[in-house]
């Protein structure tokens, strides 16, 4: 989060010091007034000959009442000063917290705009280049045509996935409806693992699916998005040599447990609770090298919640990240 300008801290410090100084002045004025009242009372009692010597004055009921009044006023001044300082501190805390959220949201939106711009321009530029190649060089060898066509389709799939993520993230916050059907979750995991191996050359994906995993009732497109996002993230953030272990097993009679473990750089503890936020990405967009929009884990969390499931994020050993998903049978 960006820091506030130094003038803001200077103003806050001045206000706190001013409150403290006013409190000290009030205490001194009250003490001066008390001394004046005591002297006046002592003179009155002496004139009225109600005391024989000055030392007797402090033993009188009048002096005791005057002292109690003074102490009560001192406590009241200290209490009000403390209340004002606490109120100011509480107000400053709330202001900083809300301002921090606003700045963080603005940063996330800025990062999203930067990343989405790159994500859109890159495949569009690739598709345009391929089309221009076909247009200028009509007599291409069949193998070159096949390669260019495959690349164009891959870029088109990338654009389609991006648009689908954007639409799905918008639906999840308003009108997303689960179209439940019996789903073989193991088949979803295996299909997604095969796609990752094809998409990320060099990725080493180990799939371990326990036999006789029961079917679950869920939304197939949504759960497919969950599986693809987590496995592709594991490969994307574990470059250059991704090693991914994914297991699917029973978690008792009422749930299944799907685990994805990678050997990437991991996620710092301070950011583990923030990665589920929309548009949030670990690190800074200006220095980040991996592609993404910050929508993947937001979509994953929302869909799992809508299926009454849970997801855990922990550290892998010796390095990397572990995602563990619990879904009811």
Provide a compact summary of the structure.
The chain is an alpha+beta fold and 329 residues long. The chain is built from six helices and seven strands, in the order αααβαββαββαββ. The strands form two sheets. Strands 2-4-5-7-6 form a five-stranded mixed β-sheet, with helices on one face.
Describe the structure.
The protein has helices spanning 6-47, 61-136, 142-172, 185-199, 220-236, 296-306, and strands spanning 180-183, 204-209, 216-219, 243-250, 255-261, 310-315, 321-328. By secondary structure, it is α+β, with helices and mostly antiparallel strands. The strands form two sheets. A five-stranded mixed beta sheet has the order 2-4-5-7-6, with helices on one face. Helix 1 runs antiparallel to helix 2 and helix 5 (220-236) packs antiparallel against helix 6 (296-306). The longest helix has 76 residues, at 61-136. 17% of the residues are buried. The model has no long low-confidence stretch (mean pLDDT 84).
Chain-wise SSE layout:
Layout: H1 6-47, H2 61-136, H3 142-172, E1 180-183, H4 185-199, E2 204-209, E3 216-219, H5 220-236, E4 243-250, E5 255-261, H6 296-306, E6 310-315, E7 321-328
Parallel strand pairs: 2-4
Antiparallel strand pairs: 1-3, 4-5, 5-7, 6-7
Helix pairs in contact: 1-2, 2-3, 3-6, 4-5, 5-6
Which structural traits does this protein have?
single chain; 329 residues; alpha+beta; five-stranded mixed sheet; two-stranded antiparallel sheet; 13% strand
Proportion of strand residues = 5-15%
Estimate the mean pLDDT confidence: 84
Estimate the helix proportion, in percent. Answer: 55-70%
- Terminal Cα span: 41 Å
Query: Would you report the number of β strands?
Result: 7
Rg, alpha carbons: 35 Å
Largest sheet: 5 strands, mixed
Determine the number of helices (DSSP H or I, runs of at least 4 residues): 6
Record the strand order, biggest sheet.
2-4-5-7-6
Output the helix-strand order: HHHEHEEHEEHEE
The SS-based structural class is alpha+beta
């Amino acid at each position: 989060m960006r820091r506030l300008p130094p003038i803001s801290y200077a103003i806050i410090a001045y206000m706190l010091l001013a409150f403290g100084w006013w409190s000290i002045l009030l205490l001194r004025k009250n003490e001066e007034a008390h001394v004046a009242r005591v002297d006046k009372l002592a003179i009155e009692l002496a004139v009225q000959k109600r005391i024989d010597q000055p030392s007797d004055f402090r033993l009188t009921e009048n002096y005791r009442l005057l002292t109690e009044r003074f102490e009560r006023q001192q406590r009241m001044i200290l209490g009000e000063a403390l209340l004002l300082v606490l109120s100011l501190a509480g107000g400053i805390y709330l202001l900083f917290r809300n301002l921090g959220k606003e700045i963080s949201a603005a940063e996330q939106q800025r990062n999203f705009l930067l990343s989405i711009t790159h994500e859109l321009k890159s495949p569009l530029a690739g598709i345009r280049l391929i089309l221009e190649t076909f247009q200028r060089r009509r007599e291409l060898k069949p193998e070159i045509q096949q390669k260019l066509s495959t690349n164009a389709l891959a870029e088109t799939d990338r654009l389609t996935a991006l648009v689908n993520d954007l639409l799905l993230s918008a639906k999840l916050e308003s009108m997303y409806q689960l179209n439940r059907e019996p789903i073989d979750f193991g088949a979803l995991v295996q299909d997604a693992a095969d796609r990752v191996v094809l998409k990320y050359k060099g990725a080493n994906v180990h799939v371990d699916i326990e036999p006789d995993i029961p079917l679950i009732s869920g939304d197939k497109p949504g759960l497919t998005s969950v599986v693809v996002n987590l496995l592709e993230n594991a490969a994307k953030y574990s470059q250059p040599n991704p090693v991914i272990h994914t297991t699917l097993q029973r978690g008792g009679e009422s749930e299944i447990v799907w685990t994805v473990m990678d050997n990437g750089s991991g996620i710092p503890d301070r950011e583990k609770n923030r990665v589920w936020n929309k548009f949030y990405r670990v690190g800074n967009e200006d220095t980040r090298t991996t592609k993404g929009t910050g929508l993947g884990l937001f979509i994953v969390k929302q869909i799992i919640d809508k299926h009454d499931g849970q997801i855990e994020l922990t550290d892998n050993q010796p390095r990397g990240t572990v995602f563990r998903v619990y879904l009811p049978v």
